[in-house]
Design goal:
Layout lengths: L4 E2 L12 E11 L14 E8 L13 H8 L12 H7 L18 E4 L2 E2 L20 E5 L8 E2 L1 H10 L5 E2 L2 E8 L13 H24 L7 E7 L11 E7 L4 E3 H13 L4 H4 L8 E4 L3 E5 L9 E5 L11 H20 L6 E6 L12 E6 L5 H5 L9 H12 L5
Parallel strand pairs: 1-7, 3-12
Antiparallel strand pairs: 2-3, 2-8, 4-5, 4-6, 6-9, 9-11, 10-11, 10-16, 13-14, 14-15, 15-17, 16-17
Helix pairs in contact: 4-7, 7-9
The chain binds zinc ion.
The site of zinc ion has 5 residues, from helix 6.
C-alpha cells in the first residue's frame, strides 16, 4: 500500500490499511458554523490518531550512530556527495551506496518539480524521473509511506466500510514530502543555500495549491493542511537530507483540539488580531523583526527556547505567502538556526506551520513554531501543558546576542 494506493492487488488485510480514530473521551461534535459545521454529516474536534502500518516499513536514513554523528558536524564536506534513498529518485535510476547496496528503486510520483506541476495528485502510477529542469532546486513527491490513503478501489472501499469496526475509519488524504534536489544535510542549516531553502518552500506552496485544486475537483472540501519539518531523527526525521512534509487530511470529519483552540482564540479576538497588534511583551521577547516576519520567544513555551514566528501580513495560510516573504523567511530561518546551534541548543528541531483549513470561514493569522527537541515528562503527557525552566525573555536575549554576528 505504498504511495497511499489501495487496490485489489495489494489489499490483503483490513488492519493493514491507514486508519483514523477519534478518541471518544476527548472528542466533541462541531457546532460552530465557522469551523466546518456541515449538515450532511457530523464533524468533530478533539484528539485523533492516524494508525498506519506502512509507516513502519519506511527506510531508515541513518545506518549507524557513527554515521549520524557525521551529520552533526556541519563542517564536513558532504554537500551534494552523500548518497541516500532520494538520490535514486533525483537521478532517475538506482544509486548504490558505498557497500554496493541499492538505495531504493528510484520510483516516485512527483507533484511539483520546483514550482512546475508534474504528476496529478491522484495519479496511480509510480515512475522514474526522466529529466529534471536545470534550475530546479527542490521537488515535492507523494510520500511512499503515508498515514493516509490517497486512492482506494471502490469495491475494496465497500468491503472496508462493511467490515471495519464502527469506531475506526479508513484514513483519507495526501501526504507530501519535499526534498532538496542536491543533497544537503538536514541538521546543518548553515550549509543549505538560501535559494535552496526558498526552493523547498516554493515547491511546497505550489504542490499544496495543486493538491487542494484537485481535491476540490474530486468533491473533497473543508481540508486541514499541515506543513512541517522534522529535522533530525529524534523528532521524527528519518532521512538525513533536508526535507519537509505536508499532511492534507481529506476525511472531512473535523480537526484536532489544538487547532480548535487556535480557531476559537482568533474568533474571540474579533477584528483585533493578537498577532497584528501585540508587541510580544514590550518587545523583550522579539528576537528578529524583518520587513516581512516577526520571530519571538513565546511566553508560553512548549520547550525551552520555543520560538514562534508569523508573517507581518495577516495571512491565513502557508499557500498565500508571496515570493519575497518566502525568501526573507529562508534567510531569517538560516540565521536563527545558526544562532541556536551556536548556543548548543539541540539540533533536532521541528518547524510547524499552523494554518486555517481550506473551506473554513474563519479569521486566522498563520503562525509557526520552532521547537527544539527535549525529553518530556508524565504530567506533560497528561494534559496540554508543558514545564519549561528557561524564562522566555532571557532565552530571547541569548538568541538575540547569538544572532548579532549574522545580521549586517
Ligand atoms: Zn493578524
Amino acid at each position: 500500500m505504498e504511495w497511499g494506493i489501495i487496490n485489489k492487488d495489494n489489499f490483503k488485510d483490513i488492519y493493514d490499511i491507514p486508519l483514523k480514530r477519534w478518541d471518544p473521551l476527548s472528542t466533541v461534535q462541531i457546532r460552530s458554523e465557522d469551523f466546518g459545521l456541515r449538515k450532511e454529516h457530523a464533524r468533530y474536534y478533539g484528539h485523533y490518531s492516524y494508525i498506519s502500518p506502512i509507516r513502519g516499513t519506511r527506510p531508515k536514513g541513518f545506518k549507524t550512530v557513527e554515521e549520524e554523528k557525521q551529520f552533526l558536524d556541519c563542517s564536513k564536506k558532504i554537500v551534494g556527495k552523500y548518497k541516500d534513498v532520494f538520490s535514486s529518485i533525483t537521478e532517475g535510476k538506482v544509486i548504490y551506496d558505498d557497500w554496493g547496496l541499492p538505495l531504493g528503486d528510484g520510483y516516485t510520483m512527483i507533484i511539483t518539480e520546483g514550482e512546475q506541476r508534474r504528476d496529478k495528485p491522484f495519479s496511480e502510477t509510480p515512475h522514474r524521473i526522466e529529466r529534471i529542469l536545470d534550475n530546479c532546486k527542490a521537488l515535492t513527491l507523494i510520500n511512499r509511506y503515508p498515514s493516509m490513503a490517497r486512492i482506494v478501489d471502490p469495491d475494496v472501499n465497500e468491503y472496508i466500510v462493511k467490515n471495519l469496526p464502527s469506531h475506526l475509519k479508513l484514513s483519507r488524504g495526501i501526504n507530501l514530502v519535499t526534498i532538496s534536489r542536491k543533497f544537503y544535510p538536514s541538521l546543518c542549516f548553515n550549509l543549505i543555500p538560501m535559494d535552496v531553502l526558498a526552493g523547498i518552500f516554493l515547491s511546497m506552496r505550489a504542490a499544496i495549491l495543486y493538491c487542494i485544486e484537485e481535491s476540490i475537483n474530486n468533491d473533497y472540501y473543508d481540508i486541514p493542511v499541515m506543513p512541517f519539518f522534522n529535522i533530525g531523527r529524534r523528532v521524527g526525521g528519518s532521512q538525513p537530507r533536508i526535507h519537509s512534509q505536508v499532511y492534507i487530511d481529506l476525511n472531512m470529519d473535523g480537526h484536532g483540539s489544538r487547532l480548535e483552540g487556535y480557531l476559537e482564540a482568533f474568533k474571540d479576538m474579533g477584528n483585533r488580531c493578537h498577532l497584528c497588534e501585540t508587541t510580544h511583551g514590550d518587545t523583550d521577547r522579539i528576537i528578529l523583526k524583518t520587513e516581512f516576519w516577526t520571530f519571538y520567544n513565546t511566553g508560553s513555551p512548549v520547550r525551552n527556547y520555543h520560538i514562534r514566528f508569523h508573517p507581518n501580513e495577516h495571512l491565513r495560510r502557508f499557500s498565500q505567502l508571496k515570493v519575497n516573504q518566502i525568501e526573507d523567511l529562508s534567510k531569517s530561518l538560516k540565521m536563527i538556526f545558526q544562532a541556536l546551534d551556536d548556543l548548543k541548543i539541540d539540533k533536532n528541531r521541528n518547524i510547524l506551520f499552523n494554518c486555517c483549513p481550506y473551506g473554513y470561514d474563519a479569521d486566522f493569522h498563520m503562525f509557526s513554531d520552532i521547537i527544539p527537541h527535549e525529553i518530556i515528562g508524565g504530567a506533560e503527557m497528561a494534559d496540554d501543558m508543558r514545564v519549561a525552566r528557561k524564562l522566555p525573555h532571557i532565552a530571547a536575549k541569548e538568541i538575540r546576542n547569538s544572532l548579532k554576528k549574522y545580521l549586517n
